[in-house]
Design a protein that fits this description.
This protein is α/β, with parallel strands linked by helices. It is built from 8 helices and 13 strands. The chain is globular and about 60 Å long.
C-alpha cells in the first residue's frame, strides 16, 4: 500500500527504543500535541494502574503486555488512531507496521536511544532505586542490541520516522535522523556511532536491495517485485533466486512472475540456498519472536 492511500487521520504512532533510553520523556512532550492520538497504550501504565491486584511482578507485567497487545489489535480492527510504547526488540512488533498499513493506517515511528547501552543500564538502576520497575541486566543489553539491529528495518516499514539521541542527561533528546516521503535526512554534526549503527547499515541495505533487483530484472524483465508483508502470520512458499547479507529474493509458487524481497533482519534465523524452494514464515508468538516451524515446513525440495 502506498503512502498516499493511507486514510487521513488514521495513524499508528510507535514510540520505541531500548529500556532506559528515556522514551517516557519524549512521550510526555508529544502527548501535549493535538496531533497525538487520544488513545495511548502503554504496558507499564496498565501494569501500574490496572493490575495492582497481581502480587507477582513478572506475572503482572506479562498480563499487562497481553492486555496491551489486545488493545492494539482492537484499535486496528476498529480503525481507531492510537499510539503505543515498545522496546521494539523483536520482529513481531514490526509486523504490526504492515498490519496497520494494510488497514489504511499511516505508521509514524519515534525511536529514542543512546550511544551506549551502559547508559541505559545505569538509568534503569536509578529508576529502580526511585521505586520504578526493574529490568534484568542481561535483558537491558540484549534488548538494546536487538532494537538497534531492527531499527533500519523499522524505518523502512514506517511512513515517517524520527530517531532521537538521548545519551546526555539534563538536555533534551537530540533529533539525529528523520524520514519523510521515503527520504532519510541526518542532523549535523553526525556522530561516529550514528554513522556506524545507522547510516552505514542503511546504505548497505540499499545497495543489497538494488543489487538483487538489478540481477533479477536481467533474468526476468517482467518480474513484479514486492517487499514481503510480514503481518498477520503471513507465510510464503517458493524458489529462492537471490541472497545477500541483508535480503532474500523469493519467486512465489502462486505467481511465477511475482517475487518477494525478504528482510533477513525480520526473518527467522536460518540458512537459505539459491535454486532451492523454501517456506518463509512470519508467524510470531505473544513475545514477538518467531514461532518454530517443523523441518518439513521450513525446507522445500531442491529444484
Amino acid at each position: 500500500m502506498s503512502e498516499d492511500s493511507n486514510l487521513p487521520g488514521l495513524r499508528m504512532v510507535v514510540l520505541a527504543g531500548p529500556n532506559g533510553s528515556g522514551k517516557s520523556t519524549v512521550t510526555d512532550g508529544l502527548r501535549l500535541s493535538q496531533k497525538f492520538p487520544p488513545l495511548y497504550i502503554n504496558a507499564d501504565d496498565i501494569s501500574k494502574n490496572e493490575l495492582g491486584h497481581i502480587p507477582d511482578a513478572n506475572s503482572r507485567n506479562m498480563a499487562a503486555a497481553k492486555l496491551a497487545e489486545e488493545r492494539r489489535k482492537t484499535a486496528l480492527k476498529n480503525g481507531e488512531a492510537f499510539a503505543f510504547e515498545t522496546v521494539m526488540s523483536t520482529p513481531g512488533k514490526i509486523a504490526l507496521f504492515d498490519e496497520a498499513r494494510s488497514l489504511g493506517f499511516s505508521v509514524d515511528l519515534i525511536f529514542v536511544t543512546t550511544n551506549d547501552p551502559m547508559i541505559n543500564f545505569v538509568r534503569v538502576e536509578n529508576r529502580v532505586q526511585l521505586g520504578g520497575h526493574a529490568v534484568p541486566e542481561e535483558k537491558i543489553f540484549e534488548r538494546y542490541a536487538r532494537a538497534m539491529q531492527l531499527l533500519p528495518s523499522a524505518i523502512e516499514k514506517a511512513d515517517t520516522a524520527e530517531v532521537y539521541d538521548n545519551s546526555e542527561n539534563g538536555i533534551l533528546p537530540q533529533l539525529i535522523a528523520a524520514k519523510k516521503d521515503s527520504i532519510i535526512e541526518y542532523s549535523e554534526p553526525i556522530s561516529d556511532w550514528v554513522k556506524e549503527c545507522l547510516i552505514s547499515i542503511c546504505n548497505e541495505r540499499c545497495s543489497s536491495r538494488e543489487r538483487l533487483i538489478t540481477e533479477l530484472k536481467v533474468l526476468d524483465p517482467d518480474a513484479e517485485i514486492l517487499d514481503a508483508n510480514i503481518g498477520n502470520n503471513k507465510c510464503y512458499s517458493g524458489l529462492i533466486v537471490g541472497i545477500t547479507d541483508f535480503h532474500v529474493m523469493q519467486r512465489l509458487n502462486t505467481n511465477p512472475k511475482q517475487y518477494l524481497l525478504h528482510d533477513k533482519a525480520l526473518c527467522a534465523p536460518r540458512t537459505y540456498e539459491v535454486k532451492k524452494s523454501s517456506v518463509i514464515s512470519y508467524a510470531f508468538g505473544a513475545d514477538g519472536k518467531h514461532k518454530l516451524l517443523s523441518p518439513k515446513k521450513s525446507h522445500g525440495k531442491s529444484l
